[in-house]
User: What shape does this take?
Amino acid sequence: MLSEHEKLEKEIQALKERNFRVEADKAWEVSKVRIASISLITYVIAAAFLYIIGVKGFLLNALVPAVGYYLSTQSLPFVKSWWIQKNWK
Assistant: This one.
């Protein structure tokens, strides 16, 4: 049987592990590697689709969704900050 002290230590350790996972998930969400990977995948899929449907200049046209995604990841932090200031005072 665990003592009260041991139970509290286990709970604290569980909370620390959870916090580590949450912090890692947050870091991944805003990492440049994630953003670049999704942008590249978006570009490749868009280029393949445009090629299949016969669009001329499909490589250049595939930049539109990839750049759009990239720009959205860069501008949203400002919108988020503004929203937090307006809604969470």
